[in-house]
Amino acid sequence: MTTEAFDKLxxxxxxxxxxxxxxxxxxxxxxxxxxxxxxxxxxxxxGDVLDIGCGLGDNAIYLASRGHSVTxxxxxxxxxxxARDRAAAAGVEVAFGVxxxxxxxxxxxxxxxxxxxxxxxxxxxxxxxxxxxxxxxATRSGARWHLxxxxxxxxxxxxAPRDAVPEHNLRxxxxxxxxxxxxxxxxxxxxxAAGMRFGENALPQAVLDRLPQEELEKMHDMAARLKRIxxxxxxxxxxxxxxxxxxxxxx
Length: 251
Prior knowledge:
Blueprint: H1 3-10, H2 34-41, E1 48-52, H3 58-65, E2 69-74, H4 77-90, E3 95-98, E4 111-117, H5 125-138, E5 139-150, H6 167-176, E6 179-192, H7 205-208, H8 213-229, E7 237-249
Parallel strand pairs: 1-2, 1-4, 2-3, 4-5
Antiparallel strand pairs: 5-7, 6-7
Helix pairs in contact: 1-4, 5-6
């Protein structure tokens, strides 16, 4: 997705001509991710914290509420605008800003801890390499990077809504850019099912005709899986398969 598409999604506007407005944002659960809350309780964050690809800011806001000094960066101006509003409503201070995660210009040697809750899997291979290198430049000696990205498999019958990241891709990319992996394993991610109900009937034929066959098949599969578990879902909250990586900066 482009920055323009993300901005439209965050503003509740159709993402392209002929499409309906979104029913929700798949990752907007209006709270921090449960796994992030657990990680913070276990002492996973220290010093100056960067929430990269922070979206609407709920993770950053939670970390700030726990006493951490937090910067939240995202490529979408619309996301940052709303994140600032949410932080103000929560009564906490977070330094939110718009930035390109593959460059992080102006943030050299700033951070001791990094959270990536769903950014890595949005990048192509070239972008992932540039992103890992940019984070190395933006962190200090001994910095820790906590990375969550879509994985293969299912949770209660649900797959990830976009391509999963192979384990070898994570290992190769991080190692090549100065990061040593301390742990890599399975976890889950809490999502908003309202933002995932984008089956065939939700789009006009002119839009469907422009979508790649692989994309259509993913839409059909996700719609079918959500339909099968609809009666079991409470408040549109669903869990999806993720990989978590805990790494540290090698000096």
